[in-house]
UniProtKB/TrEMBL annotation:
Taxonomic superkingdom: Eukaryota
Protein name: Uncharacterized protein
InterPro entries xrefs: FAM167, FAM167_domain
Family under the similarity heading: Belongs to the FAM167 (SEC) family.
Xref: Pfam families: FAM167 (PF11652)
């Protein structure tokens, strides 16, 4: 009888330890997902800042950041954007 109770306590402690490890692992996975999502949002915001906060220049000239990603002035004859 005493041995059964001792084994039952050990099993309950093991069960509790396994659940704690599962929770810890899940929290770490969620933290990593949140960090990845935060990094992607910050990166996206930086790209928007780069493309949207460019000072407007006179005429139809394009800013350097747009040229860096391959966008040039519109070709009116073909009505397409040409690549650098």
């Amino acid at each position: 009888m005493q041995l059964d109770q001792q084994l039952a306590r050990q099993l309950m402690h093991l069960h509790s330890d396994v659940n704690k490890l599962k929770i810890e692992q899940t929290c770490n996975q969620h933290r990593k997902m949140l960090n990845d999502a935060t990094f992607e949002l910050e990166e996206h915001a930086e790209m928007l800042d780069l493309l949207c906060d460019v000072p407007v220049s006179s005429g139809f000239s394009l800013s350097t950041p747009l040229k860096l990603i391959g966008i040039t002035k519109m070709n009116i004859n073909s009505r397409r954007f040409s690549l650098c």
